[in-house]
Design brief:
Lysozyme-like; single chain; disordered N terminus; 12 helices; 5-stranded mixed beta sheet; binds zinc ion; 9% strand; 2 domains; 9 strands; 307 residues; alpha/beta; Muramoyl-pentapeptide Carboxypeptidase, domain 1
Length: 307
Amino acid sequence: MKSQTMRCFAIVCSVVLCTTACQQLPIVKAPSQNFNERVNHLVIHFTSENFQESLNILTQSETRPVSAHYLLPDPMDATYDLSELKIFALVPPQFRAWHAGNSYWAGKTGLNDQSIGIEIVNESRCLDDIATLANQPAFKDRCRFEAFAPEQIALLIALIKEILKDFPDISPHAIIGHADIAPSRKIDPGPLFPWRQLYGEGIGAWFDENRVQTLIPWLETHPIPLETQQRLLNHYGYDLDVTGTEDTQSQLAVRAFQMHFRPNNYSGFFDTETLARLISLIERYRPEGLTLISDLPEAIALHRALP
Ligand SMILES: [Zn+2]
């Protein structure tokens, strides 16, 4: 009893006397090793509007209640009148911005709670609700994508590098586009966003290009059922139901994946190239998903045989 009293006394002596609240409350400092950052995702967007319109929408509550942590202007935009390209900080990163909306990634929902959102001024857009544009000719006809300015991307890369220093819990495969986390509603940042260039700068996920060239002939002789392909895509992160048919929701999720990882052909349909890139990404970032492939021993043997 006496030693317990002494222990309590020692603990009370370590009360933190740092702030007014600490001085008033009987708080004992007992640091745990078991914690992580609340922010562990980074979501990239384009605004579909010019700079001034975007700034208004993202900062004023009387318009739509949306925001982001950062806004990156387009240097060619007539409504941006500063001589240098600057990053606009709209919401401090420790606060929750309203950029993701209904969202899903790898089992997590409501990503506003755990992400930083970056809006890039770029006037790409679809003229209709994309849920009505699963069909490829309609999508190509009704959606228009604009290139990103190289200065914008250079500044974005510098910004993300700083963010990753402050939030090291953001893993490469948690650096994603709005379309990745809301494929039935969103298309941003679109197929012209340079994900591969970012990967070359140490930002985000990318597949092993050599590995994909090895996987393609293997997949051609080992066809994988459509249900398994859908399960693999869902395992990597995308929100889709395993239906065994390439229905609208499947096409939208596949197209979101392709706009990110196969931007030269975003048909919305699985094919060998798409599947090879997906498997390579799973091998790199979520290898537990390989158990979904029924022909696993041969797949692993092939993987191990690689240099
Ligand atoms: Zn967006």
